[in-house]
Amino acid sequence: MKGKQKMKPVQRKRSIGSVMKDNWQLYVLVLPAVIYFFVFHYLPLYGIQIAFKDYKAVSGIAGSEWVGLKHFKAFFDAYYFKRLLTNTLLLNLYNLLWSFPVPLILAILLNQIRGERKKRFIQTSIYVPYFISTVVLAGMLYIFLSPTSGILNLVRNAMGFASIDYMSSSSAFRSIYIISGVWQSAGYGTILYIATLSGVDLSLYEAAEIDGASIWQKIRYIDVPSLIPTAVMVFILDCGKILSSNTDKALVMQTAGNIPTSDIIGVYVYNVGLGSGQFSYTAAIGLFVNIINFILIVVVNKISKKTADVGLF
């Protein structure tokens, strides 16, 4: 009969139970990660409400008095609010300006090294600083920048200049913080970019060499376009940390002399929260910081989607 067509077999939807039964190994593998995020990231959300309460340990979270936006208003009206916000923003903006492009540049340069042993040696050398603890790093800074025996001041003295106490200088705090951070984390930050470059089709490089392209032309027309999506996503995530500094590092680097620039929100929350026991007040500050960071991620992601058509979501 004309027009007669074969009927396609109808595929029945499988139940969730049968899917889980067939792939139970994968669910067992991902279970520790699910438990970790649930216990340490979702259950603590219950404690957010202490930012809107006058929390007392004796009464507990549920029994504490509800005060609404009292703690938020107290922070916004405080005379030190402007200094804390300005110091935190400037420190993280300058840090983003310098720390973001360095791993990208290092990854591009490492990708051009042809000797496998040489490449591994350089990679290992620049990865090592990442595993130095914050306290040890601060101790190294105090030793190297000491006004009496620090290497920089010894060089200055040899040139006839007077010694400078860098760690007690408010104008030098941000530079020391950023430079030491770039030195410590730039190498580790190249891992994601190197992984991206390793996935580039080698035939592109071969075709470029046949066409007589130089190293810089291969970087410009092959490496950079391949890295743009990854770099944009990293940049979006970094923008979500504008108000979240490395509190541990700022705290151990803080001295009486550099307080005008080292007094950031994270250090203030640590001192007030643990030193004075104002848990509701500091919880309100932490919630404010996280909301601003979340808004920044959404805004930057939206801008990136419109301009570069690349985004996290």
Give keywords.
mainly alpha; 313 residues; MetI-like fold; two-stranded antiparallel sheet; 16 helices; single chain
Secondary-structure element string: HHEHEHHHHHHHHHHHHH
Report how far apart the termini are.
Answer: 51 Å
Spatial ordering of strands, largest sheet? 1-2
Largest sheet: 2 strands, antiparallel
The CATH architecture name reads Orthogonal Bundle
Query: C-alpha Rg, in Å?
Result: 26 Å
Inertia-based shape: globular
Spell out the blueprint of helices and strands.
Elements: H1 16-22, H2 24-42, E1 53-54, H3 60-63, E2 65-66, H4 70-77, H5 81-99, H6 101-111, H7 116-127, H8 134-144, H9 151-158, H10 170-198, H11 202-210, H12 215-239, H13 247-253, H14 259-262, H15 265-275, H16 279-307
Antiparallel strand pairs: 1-2
Helix pairs in contact: 4-16, 5-10, 6-10, 7-10, 8-13, 10-12, 12-16, 13-15, 15-16
Question: Can you characterise this structure?
Answer:
α6 packs across α10 (170-198) and α10 (170-198) packs across α12 (215-239). The chain has a single domain, classed as MetI-like (MetI-like fold). The protein is 68% helix and 1% strand. The protein has helices at residues 16-22, 24-42, 60-63, 70-77, 81-99, 101-111, 116-127, 134-144, 151-158, 170-198, 202-210, 215-239, 247-253, 259-262, 265-275, 279-307, and strands at 53-54, 65-66. It is an all-alpha fold. The longest helix has 29 residues, at 170-198.
